[in-house]
Predict the structure of Tryptophan synthase beta chain.
Amino acid sequence: MSDATRILLDESRIPRNWYNILADLPAPPPPPLHPTTREPVGPDDLAPLFPAELIAQEVSTDRFVPIPDGVLDIYRLWRPTPLIRARKLERALGTPARIYYKYEGGSPSGSHKPNTAVPQAYYNARQGIRRLTTETGAGQWGTALAFACAQYGLACEVWMVRASYDQKPHRRSLMRVYGATVHASPSAVTSVGSKILAEDADSPGSLGIAISEAVEVAAGADDTRYALGSVLNHVLLHQTVIGEEALEQLAAFGETPDLIVGCTGGGSNFAGLAFPFIREKLAGRMNPLIRAVEPAACPSFTRGTYAYDFGDTAGFTPLLKMHTLGHTFIPDPIHAGGLRYHGMSPLLSHMYELGMFEAVAREQRECFEAGVRFARAEGIVPAPEPTHALAEVIAEALRCKESGEEKVILTSLCGHGHFDLSAYDRYLSGELEDFRLPQERIDDALATLPRA
Ligand SMILES: *Cc1c(COP(=O)(O)O)cnc(C)c1O
């Protein structure tokens, strides 16, 4: 075992391929279905929304997908990212466990999201597309896509969930600095948004509504496509650069992981870290336990159902077989905005059904407590989303303290919390609440599941 604290890789060690776990699964996940015909969707159905190359990646079963030079050129701005041993946190906890975190907060927009925003913008630009539309909740995805569009000269239009638009003016400003146009969602510029505003002029919005707006605009213009920051296979594929680097770095530390922990909203940072390790596990080279952590206020794995559902509120998207709380479910306003999505990646949902990893849920306040503890020990203020993973890591490290076990724990610190300090303020002044999610709310939303 190395006595290093950080393993930094040379620029030449940026992975040259993304890893496609579809090549190694015992069975493929159920296909997306057309929202009206209920037949599996084909490339032509998706062409108004995504460029051909991303549609091909969505269904590809090639084990490795080469990363184009035009993408590597931009990845070099911040990749490889460091793998850091949390020695100060270990000491503060008094644990014999060894804790490692892959830090993705050093990207231009401060999270793992540019790992996929960059290739998505790249493939659209290469196909001659002029404008991308998207939604954003907490603002991390919108910022990442705005940054990526600026790199390739694309226009970028973002529908930002109203509640965040009002609470997080600085994320909005950052998107504008990168050149994007930002709308509060629901907005009057789409027919979906206008309809919702007519019913409730003060609607706080939701990710599902914002997706409907961005999809409506992209589907209505030839030179415009839509970009999604999580959930889809091609997004998870792009994020595997995280795990590929971490594999090499952890080996340089002289370690193999016993436990891998990640937070899950749509599942992309978790998959990005875990998939290359799952490949090694399937090949019999290591045997880590893998655990997803979701918020108790939006528990799609632990309390949702595995069924075909829409990805958005209005029902424009294909039906996806996934762990879902129902497309009409609007989660309570927890501060981990990136984890407030009713559904889950269909690929991860399928793997969860196959028993390839486990999932737990954590409450908001214990997560902020973990975030503060981590910041005081390690110096980095985590985004509210990865504090869910940190709460689990800390609980596990304390269990190791009881048992004396020297577990090797690996997690993804997928973003910094510099734009979330008002949430930390609320936690520190005791104003933050946990939300009890009554079963009726889940049942009500699940009653609106489409019949597949
Ligand atoms: C978007 C986001 C998430 C949630 O999305 P996943 O696809 O589940 O990773 C988590 N953490 C951060 C920092 C994010 O920006």
Observations:
- The pocket of pyridoxal-5'-phosphate is lined by residues 111, 113, 140-141, 230, 263-270, 338-339, 383, 385-386, 414-415 (CB under 6 Å).
- The two ends are 52 Å apart (CA to CA).
- Residues 290 and 357 are 5 Å apart (CA to CA).
